[in-house]
Amino acid sequence: MNSETIRPTVKPNGILRSIPPLERFTPLTPHMAISPTVSVVVPAMNEAENLPHVFATLPQWIDEIILVDGNSVDDTVAVAKRLRPNVRVVTQTGKGKGDALAAGFAACTGDIIVMIDADGSTDGREIIHFVSALVAGADFVKGSRYASGGGSDDLTFTRTLGNKVLTGLVNRIYGTQYSDLCYGYNAFWARHLDVLNVDCEGFEVETLMNIRAAKAGLKIHEVPSHERCRIHGESNLHAVRDGLRVLRTIFREWRGRPAAQLPEPRTTAPAADQGAA
């Protein structure tokens, strides 16, 4: 990449936006570099055995890894620090995945936030697809196990049926076209944290974020993702109990507060949204 390949671009409203200096760009592939910084949030509780597999898939170009430790009684924190000495550890004060993600999001300093699981079910090598969709214009990017190219090694009949029913319900109520509602691999611009406003405790957090992204009018894009089985240990997810929590979240958001409003467009693009080269 050289200066001749960098061209000022024109936004849809006709305003010319500036291109950051070359040193601001992070190479992702031999043909692509981006200027936004990327934070990855990994909520974990007693995942010491799984973290070596998870961290091995995370790209080296990630700017920041936030491990949210749910008061683990094993060596989760020590293993994380050994694998990535620059990892930032946040100790969770509450309980549940939603609470952990909220704590992790609050600690992020990157322009883009990616949320993945610590059990080995999500592949960090897919992060490039999420980031690429964001710099191409999306506000919120959802992983989908049902999109072409996606899949799962871990979906039971009960989970599959529940997910399809809940996804259809959300699509009908909110006018969305989601193919996979209850999946925890997502990414978004940090500037949208206010409208997402994560304020729940449990596994319903993915549904909450998907609904609030839609209500706020964010540009949502799905990318295919392949879910693998948990490598070690047992999942804290209980299909029926957590399915009911998701259902309550859907109706509470439907009856509850109006959608948060996006900020008015600025006359110049923020530094975080300078695209790719």
Automatic annotation (TrEMBL):
Family matches, as InterPro entries: Glyco_trans_2-like (IPR001173), Glycosyltransferase_2 (IPR050256), Nucleotide-diphossugar_trans (IPR029044)
Q: What Pfam families is this protein classified in?
A: Glycos_transf_2
Annotated Glycosyltransferase 2-like domain residues: 39-187
Domain of life of the native organism:
Bacteria
Q: Which family does it belong to?
A: Belongs to the glycosyltransferase 2 family.
Record protein name field: Glycosyltransferase 2-like domain-containing protein
